[in-house]
Specification:
The chain is mostly beta strands and 252 residues long. The chain is built from one helix and 14 strands. The strands form two sheets. The chain has a ten-stranded antiparallel β-barrel. The longest helix is centred in the N-terminal third of the chain and has 11 residues.
């Protein structure tokens, strides 16, 4: 793969399919609401009990500001995005569980928190990049790196016991991105990325509509779906996070 990539890069520069020659920078700032579902387990010496995010801890939705910057040069698009995930909830346990070596018993009032920063850097190569059709069509593969930096904690309000696990992990994904310009001021954008390794999977997909009634300025809205399945030494997480988002963008 390392030997092939330079050759593919030279081919793309020499023979893009109707590639646009203009350079464009875009900045997006939005507001995302994500709903959680699934379960997690914090283990010690292989011992732990699954905790249901919704039924056991009543996690609320995550609502926070997101940001993305992108540079497009010919058939290539380089992007960097940021998505914070902050979930918390409190519930009275109807069944006990072990988390990170501590026992949380039936009847305990327990608060759980997930605080994650998701950084996303991606490179798209638009193999198809037509701008002389009734609609503009851009389609190509995308490679990305998702960097997850987060903390997960469980605290018993009954006994005062609090345990937490934290860490940072990077996951490369392979997928595709497409953009269809219906008119000069309306476009549809879709993106998907996926990776599977060592019993871990990561799926990130979203679709959005961009509306730009004023040149170079506009608004957007869409829906994002994250499916994360992590099985590491002290943490097992099998959860989905999904919901709508909206914001404004600037191009120059």
């Amino acid at each position: 793969m390392k030997k092939c990539f330079p050759m593919l890069l030279l081919l793309a520069l020499a023979f893009p399919l109707q590639a646009s020659a203009d350079e464009m920078v875009s900045l997006k700032v939005g507001y995302q609401e994500l709903s959680p579902s699934g379960n997690f387990t914090g283990t010690e010496n292989g011992i732990g009990t699954s905790v249901d995010i919704e039924d056991d801890l009543n996690f609320d939705d995550s609502e926070d500001v997101t940001a993305e910057a992108a540079l497009q040069l010919g058939p290539f698009r380089l992007s960097a995005g940021y998505l914070p995930l902050k979930f918390s909830g409190t519930g009275e346990l109807t069944q006990g569980f072990f988390f990170n070596g501590e026992n949380y018993t039936v009847g305990d009032t327990v608060r759980g928190e997930i605080d994650v920063d998701l950084y996303d850097v991606g490179l798209t190569w638009y193999l198809v990049n037509f701008d002389d059709l009734p609609v503009r069509l851009q389609l190509g593969p995308e490679i990305a790196v998702k960097v997850v930096d987060g903390d997960l904690s469980v605290e018993s309000r009954t006994t005062g016991i609090r345990e937490a696990v934290s860490g940072t992990a990077a996951a490369p994904t392979i997928g595709a991105r497409a953009r269809v310009g219906i008119s000069d001021f309306i476009a549809l954008v879709g993106r998907v990325g996926y990776i599977e390794y060592d019993d871990n999977t990561f799926l990130d997909a979203d679709g959005q509509i961009e509306i730009s009634p004023i040149p170079l300025v506009g608004i957007y809205g869409g829906y994002r779906y994250l499916d994360i399945d992590i099985d590491e030494s002290d943490l097992v997480l099998d959860a989905t996070f999904e919901g709508p988002y909206a914001g404004a963008f600037l191009r120059f």
